[in-house]
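Continued from yesterday's entry.
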Amino acid sequence: MLGVWLMRHLQLGFKNLLLHKLRSLLTTLGVVFGVGSVIAMLAVGEGASREALQRIERLGATNIILESIKPTEQEEAGRAQRRMVSAYGITYKDDERIGETMSVVTRTVPVKQFRKKGRLGERTMEMRIVGTTPGWFELIPRDVVAGRVLVESDVTGSANVCVLTEEGARQLLATEHALGQSVRLGTDFFEVVGIVRSEGGGGGVQTPDTRIDAYILINVCRARFGEVDMQRSTGSFSAERVELHQLLVQVDSRAHVEPTAKAIEAMLNRFHGNDDFVINVPLALLREARETKRRFNVVLGSIAGISLLVGGIGIMNIMLASVTERTREIGIRRAIGARRSQIIGQFLAETVVLSAVGGLIGVGFGFALPPLITRFAAMETVVTAWSVVLSIGISVLVGVVSGIYPAVRAARLDPITALRHE
């Protein structure tokens, strides 16, 4: 019975709206643009945050990243009076302590870094040399473009091999076939055994890699480049001793990540007299990024929802004008026995039809906008199912709310007064 009643009112609503096609079309445009803008803006917000979330997830939810940082200028000046070489940061002893004292730690991966000139023939460029172990590529997985990554057999033979990032290989090797080439890093030659795709240098997320890296074995790095990094420039000289620039720590489960990070921080504070390290927890960054994404979507959705509100005001305005135009019709219907609930149902049906049709057209508009934004603004956009459902639901709700007052006003008209209306 309810279904028959609803269908009858919807059919009557369509019929009445088709009597004024242009006016109905103009009225729905507010809803069309509102729904379309909600979908498009949420797609922009989703796309903007998804890349950062993916980067953080690929850092490993069970990883903890320790990084050496240079102390403040005041601390550095005090130490410079006592020594010529500035020493700070994470040490090999720190690596041993973490592995030996914390049972939840499954493995640690040490990392040393140097800035050196990379040379192949006549082509030269500055590169970041990363000395590490094969475990680096297991904790921080990167797509292998060609060849392979560092393996345990390289460690056994202390092989002079390197893995380049894709951008570094493209700039240094140019048209040369990459694999098998001997690249000069500093004063030594290394055979290129693989190329990986780097994810560093973008997205607002600090990653352990950069766009132009050369990965070599840490034991080879220590033997070839030593422990002290000396930088010479015109009229100046600086020397720094940093045993480990980074230390990647893998924990056995997500539940232990943040407690272990706090325990590591407390332990390092006992043995380091100054703030020469920082701890990054990808799991905490991921949680924070998801919360930021949620807030960003709420803000964008609220801004876009204003246009839906404007569309609702337009519907209410038209329906009030319709009540005035059809006053005599309302009087006739009331005189022949129509109840107030039936009058209310008729006008609500018309507003729901207006908002629902506008919402459906707006969905098509919303799907068409994101590809254009991606193409002309070079911004990643992602249309989600929940944004479509949300926008349609809001459009119908706006239609119902906007139609209540005109419908109630129409139902309260005095039949005698309405019949006299010209």
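--- second protein ---
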Amino acid sequence: MKVRTLVALALFASLVSFAKFSQCENTGWATPDQYIHACYSDLPALYGSRGLDTNTWPYSSDDNSVEYPVVTAMVMYATSFAAKSPASYFNVNIFFLILLFIATLIIVRKIRPEFAYLSAIAPAMIVSLFINWDLWGIATMMLAIYWFDRKQYLHSALILALSISTKFLPIFLLIPIAFILWRDTKLKELVKYVAVVAATWLAINVPFALTTPTGWWRFFKLNLERGADWGSIWLALQQLGLSLTNLNYLSILVLLIALTSVAIVLFELKYTPALASVAFIVMSAVMVASKVYSPQFVLWLTPLAVIALTNKKDLHAFWLWQATEVIYHVAIWQHIASITGAKFGLGPTPYAILTLVRVAGTIYLMAVLARRALQARNTHSKLLDLLFEGGKPYP
């Protein structure tokens, strides 16, 4: 697919997404209307609640600072000067989000050109485009993956640190990165890569940590102390009547088990995979095990799923997964509508069931990709040896 065709698809997808969210813009994001019409967005919601309408410094408050890493906070702050209302703030931000969406698709095309169109037409991605500022972190994450597999490690490390300073989720990519460099006996490159990421992250964050430490730390504090939150298996289990104690420790334990399982899988491989081929399973494991699985997390996983695909026969799994994501997208907003005054909505039990359906859809896609790798390389006998064979370094 040519770049201009991909850009045209991206612009069309953005227009469709804007039409979806414009329902809330027309009503001033009134509650429960914004949930009933599934057009809620953090952009206008935080414009007033975090003092952005008065151009307040994002980390100036000890208890009401923006709950995001510093790059996102600076984007929120900088764009507030170009806005005079929640609607104008929303429109200013989505202009940049559309550009980042296009950039993300172009990077996906460089990695997996035959399937790049999927990221532009994926329905779950379209309906989630403007929920949050995630695309700032996603575009930089995809660029870090692209540069890493091209062995441009310095560029990759610098941009990965920027991505981590934007949304923090990409920090988990250091696990497969460490494995790949270790497997290639590039220990010096591994040490240098991690050092560059750490030094760059510190350079970005230390000024904020020193000048407004409490506000800067609020993002980390909220994530450490939060309970079972939207989309997580933990909230679903609670809503189904399973009472869990010591949830913070339990979720950390499950996350460690998930990451350890990924590490075991990687060490079972008899070849060095490309980062593009392992990023999906790493990020999926993190999201499934965490205390929150936000609806916009599909924005992170969709491009990662696309670059992990190698065979058209597996597209059914991709579309099934997208279907579960769209179903969940409707479910969460209808559930919140039901608890914010709507006459109709979705109760906790059906919402919990659909949450688990969404998780199952993700796991199913992972299983299909593993099976495809097994069929592609019948010279090996172990599934773990084949799990990521599909992803190869690209020129």
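The chain has one domain: 3-386. Confidence is low (pLDDT under 50) at residues 376-395. Will compare against the first tomorrow.
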